[in-house]
Amino acid sequence: MTVTTVKKDPETRTLTISAQFDAPVARVWQVWDDPRQLERWWGPPTHPATVLDHDLTPGGSVTYLMTGPEGDKHRGWWRVISVDAPHRLEFEDGFADDAGNPHSTLPTTTCRVTLHEQAGGGTRMEIESTFPSLQAMRELTEMGMEEGITAAVGQIDQLLAPHGR
């Protein structure tokens, strides 16, 4: 599995996932930048994603739909805050209702993705999610956020393999 550490810090209200890949930064960036690649890993294996809209520019948005094993649908959205391709992406992440509108009762997070070049041409990726409150952190982790993102990131190695492109 690609995930090397998972760190929850209630003091800073953050959940940070670190992963290591045997691919250059520019290649790892593509799994975020290309909507067809993003949908191959963004949802956990049991809830694959379909990316509906994908605009990775500041002020842009990404909308997606995850489909569960029983056919249940879960919508989500990103509001892109900043992009420094191929090293950094920051976005607000939230759930959406059936019409695709931001869900009014579920909390959002701010996600910061950083890609760091490693010796030998590899990449270390960190995804840091900041919660608006401790209650929001509890609520989203109880919904399985930690397990879901860890399983999702665990699918990237297969996508980065030469046959996975």
CATH topology: Alpha-D-Glucose-1,6-Bisphosphate, Chain A, domain 4
Number of domains: 1
Helical residues, percent: 10-25%
Overall residue-averaged pLDDT value: 94
Name the CATH homologous superfamily: START domain
> Whole-number radius of gyration?
15 Å
Strand content: 35-45%
Structural class: alpha+beta
Strand and helix order: EEHHEEEEEEHHH
Q: In this structure, how is the largest beta sheet organized?
A: 8 strands, antiparallel
Strand order of the largest sheet: 1-2-8-7-6-5-4-3
CATH architecture: 2-Layer Sandwich
Spatial gap, N to C terminus: 18 Å
The CATH first-level class comes to Alpha Beta
- This entry's quaternary arrangement is single chain
Low-confidence stretches: none
The backbone outline, from C-alpha atoms, is globular
User: Helical stretch count?
Assistant: 5
What can you tell me about this protein's structure?
With about 160 residues, this protein is of the alpha+beta class. It has a single domain (about 5-160), classed as START domain (Alpha-D-Glucose-1,6-Bisphosphate, Chain A, domain 4, 2-Layer Sandwich). The chain has five helices and eight strands, in the order ββααββββββααα. The protein has helices spanning about 25-35, 35-40, 135-140, 145-155, 155-160; strands at about 5-10, 15-20, 50-55, 60-65, 75-85, 90-95, 110-115, 125-130. It has an eight-stranded antiparallel β-sheet. A hairpin with a 5-residue loop joins strand 7 (about 110-115) and strand 8. The longest helix has 9 residues, at about 25-35. The protein starts with a strand and ends in a 5-residue tail after the last helix.
